[in-house]
Design brief:
The chain is an alpha/beta fold. The protein has 19 helices and 16 strands. It binds flavin-adenine dinucleotide and iron/sulfur cluster. Iron/sulfur cluster (SF4) binds next to helix 4 and helix 5. Pathway: Amino-acid biosynthesis.
């Protein structure tokens, strides 16, 4: 156990964020550093519970009490080793995860939970700084070839596990750079891309090969891939976005979030001078109250938007757990992300009826109406219709599943009732040597689930290719997200 009295004597403390006025001037991560003595005290709050519910909350089964104790004892190197025992990329989860482990923490029943995520990122940052994160090439090669399609967190986790198990792994990515949503979806202010690049350096040194600019199903046929490789892992994500087919959708100035965020990320990365979709000086309305919407809010502010409003059809969630979401579940509560701290307005229980354009066919406003839930349906509240000015509208209403045209159609792989790629317990699809991991099989989810799926699919591939039971499989394909 860490400090036996830590949870009684030390209140929860997290690092301060950089002042809003300052951080809006750049795309750097918003949090300031945290002194290691402070972090040690935070780790010391862990009670090393007999039944650590934090494990249950984490899809990766992270060994949280173990690394809390090691940090408390200042044994950072062993803490880093225990961290990597279950998670290939703690720097991704340590910056981006909504931390279902913290909402499951036993201390959270009657006090503030342990700041697990902060401990995680501090361990991995220290490990990179100290040079403890080194390539781990395999001791021997199996002679088997594996193709991974897609380089998001699930594809990368699968690739790293399989390379280390001795297979020759090639990752195919249709974008010009590796990383999936980590690269061109998620903004720098949530995770700076050098974290991704240094991990890719490690993977290259271990022997993983990356081929960018290859759209599998177009540039190389699915059949070619199946013949040339002993196994294929589909990790293409859930990229088919949900649209809003209402009157005026065709007006200029209305874009999907994933049309807006990638060029903004390219500007932040110095690959582009100005984004073709720019919020500067505009009233921006973001439709959709989730994380993707929040990323649009933060990016719009950095581009110099005149005003930013985020719309959500659901009612405003409660400030604390309701009876419907008891501990240790991940509760639906009102959350203020770093992007929301930076300004803008959030409107709940509103629906967009139509878009209004100026004479040039460019959007100038939305017609809104308040709604209430009646018999499970949203019904308009009479007399609440109004116009909300908007010269840029961003649709952030989630994703309906993987893109079917191209690769999946060519493979003619079986889909599940939700339209995702169906798989068995070993993450194998309906096709003999084809496996699936991440959002492509699970549907839109989280980084932590993508990494867990990549690890589990790798275990399935390795067993398929060699008949051995070597790699860990943290989850079953049917495990549901806690979020
Ligand atoms: C804007 C945004 C912000 C998010 N923020 C968070 C967050 O803060 N925290 C969190 O936990 N989750 C977040 N998520 C969700 C998270 O990013 C995803 O759940 C996760 O990235 C899924 O990983 P993946 O590997 O399955 O797929 P992806 O990351 O989507 O990667 C799939 C890759 O496959 C490639 N690809 C697809 N088809 C082909 C093909 N035929 N040939 C070659 N390449 C192909 C794509 O180009 C893409 O690079 C966010 C999602 C979005 C959209
Ligand atoms: S549930 Fe919380 S207090 Fe208990 S072991 Fe996990 S992190 Fe520590």
């Amino acid at each position: 156990m860490a400090d036996p009295k830590g949870f009684l004597t030390t209140p929860r403390e997290t690092p301060k964020s950089r002042p809003v006025a300052l951080r809006l001037l750049d795309y750097r991560e918003v949090y300031e550093g945290f002194a290691s003595d402070k972090l040690q005290k935070q780790a010391g709050r862990c009670m090393d519970c007999g039944i650590p519910f934090c494990h249950q909350g984490c899809p990766l089964g992270n060994l949280i009490p173990e690394w809390n104790t090691l940090v408390w004892r200042e044994d950072w190197r062993d803490a880093a080793e225990r961290l990597h025992a279950t998670n290939n990329f703690p720097e991704f989860t340590g910056t981006l995860c909504p931390a279902p482990c913290e909402t499951a923490c036993v201390l959270g029943i009657n006090d503030d939970p342990v700041t697990i995520k902060r401990v995680e990122i501090s361990i991995i940052d220290r490990a990179f700084d100290e040079g403890w994160v080194v390539p781990q090439p395999p001791a021997a090669q199996t002679g088997k070839k594996v193709a991974v399609v897609g380089s998001g967190p699930s594809g990368l986790a699968a690739a790293q596990q399989l390379t280390r198990a001795g297979h020759q792994v090639v990752v195919f990515e249709r974008a010009d750079k590796i990383g999936g949503l980590l690269r061109y979806g998620i903004p720098e202010f949530k995770m700076e891309k050098h974290r991704l690049d240094r991990r890719l350096d490690q993977m290259r040194a271990e022997g993983t090969e990356f081929r960018t600019g290859v759209n599998v199903g177009v540039d190389i046929t699915a059949e070619q891939l199946r013949t040339e490789y002993d196994a294929v892992v589909l990790a293409g994500g859930a990229t088919a976005w949900r649209d809003l087919p209402i009157a005026g959708r065709e007006f200029d100035g209305i874009h999907q979030a994933m049309e807006f965020l990638p060029p903004a990320n390219r500007v932040a990365a110095g690959e582009l001078d100005v984004s073709p979709i720019n919020a500067e000086g505009l009233d921006v309305v973001v439709i959709g109250g989730g994380d993707t919407g929040a990323d649009c809010v933060g990016t719009s502010h950095r581009q110099g938007a005149k005003s930013v409003t985020q719309l959500e059809i659901m009612p405003k969630p409660p400030e604390s757990r309701s009876a419907a979401h008891p501990w240790p579940t991940y509760p639906m509560i009102y959350r203020v992300s770093s992007a929301h701290e930076e300004g803008g307005e959030r409107l709940y229980s509103v629906n967009t009826q139509e878009f209004v354009a100026d004479s040039a066919g460019r959007v100038r406003a939305l017609k809104l109406v308040e709604v209430k839930l009646s018999d499970g349906k949203f019904v308009p509240v009479e007399g609440t219709e109004r116009e909300l000015p908007a010269q840029l509208v961003l649709l952030a209403m989630g994703f309906v599943g993987p893109q079917r045209e191209g690769l999946l159609e060519a493979l003619d792989v079986e889909l599940d009732p939700r339209g995702n790629v169906a798989r068995d317990k070993a993450f194998k699809t309906s096709l003999d040597n084809v496996f699936v991991a991440g959002d492509m099989g699970r549907g839109q989810s989280l980084i932590v689930w993508a990494i867990a799926e990549g690890r589990s699919a790798a275990a399935g591939v390795d067993a398929y290719l060699t008949g051995r039971d070597l790699l860990p499989a943290p989850i079953a394909p049917t495990d549901r997200p806690l979020t």
